[in-house]
Structures are given as C-alpha cells and as structure tokens.
What does this fold into?
Amino acid sequence: MGLIDKRLAELGITLPTPAKPVANYVPWVRTGNLVFISGQGPLSDGNILHQGRLPDTVSIEDGQKSARLCAVNVIAQLREALGGDLDRVTRVVKLVGFVNAAPDFADHPKIINGASDLMVEVFGDKGRHARSAVGSPSLPFNISVEVEAIIEVA
It folds into this structure.
C-alpha cells in the first residue's frame, strides 16, 4: 500500500470504481507527464447525490459535499490512469469546478473549496493547485457540481 493509499484510508475514503463516460469522450488522457481528468460529478454507488441548483434546491453545505465527492471521483479516475499508483502524483496542477447556480448566486469559490480542500488533505503540498470556480445555468443530469483536473505525474 502506497503513501497516498494510506492517507485515503486515514481519511476514511474508499475510492469507487471509476464512472464510465456517458457520451463520446474518454475519462482521462495522459500526454507526457500530465493527466487530464474529464469532468466528474457527485456520483456515489452509481447514484447522483445533491441534484439541483444552488442555492435554490441545494444548500451551500451540500454543494461543498458534492464538490468533495467530485474530487473523490477525480482521484478514482487518476488511480486508473496511473495503473493504481497514486504515489506517482507530483502536483495537482489545476482544478476547474462548475456550479449549477442561480443567476444571482456568488459563492462559487466556497462550493469548489470542497474539492480543493480534499486535494490538499490527500496530497499535501502537492495538492495545492490553480483553480477556476465557474457558475453554470445547468449541468448534465441536473448535477449540482462538476470538477475536472489536470495532474502532473512522474
């Protein structure tokens, strides 16, 4: 068991089997020392958690939980891309988070902190990253949050 696997266990996180694409794309692409992870939603055991729009039908707290779950799913895809060895991560370069938000909602960064905080909890300083937190009038399947990532690997 690697260091990152031990850290996940300490945090009580069991990575799921990565979700399969729902359209004409691949879940991740590796080019050189970068892995690009396609947008991940708040899926748990094949079920979408916290569907809807912030803050109308999804609370700030549930939005943050959704972003954290998206990040768990990003890490699951990353593990697949790295043949199971998450210790090969040298840097979480960038996260892009999309929030299904009402037009007057302005707390996008607070929501995407759910994903950012997890990356730092799991990868330490290697998890500190550049980021965009973007509002969207809708997201696929009415998910509340979607997160994509760029990760540098050895």
The mean pLDDT is 97. Residues 3-13+26-153 form a domain with the 60s Ribosomal Protein L30; Chain: A; fold (CATH 3.30.1330.40). Strands lie at 28-31, 34-40, 43-44, 47-48, 89-100, 130-136, 145-153.
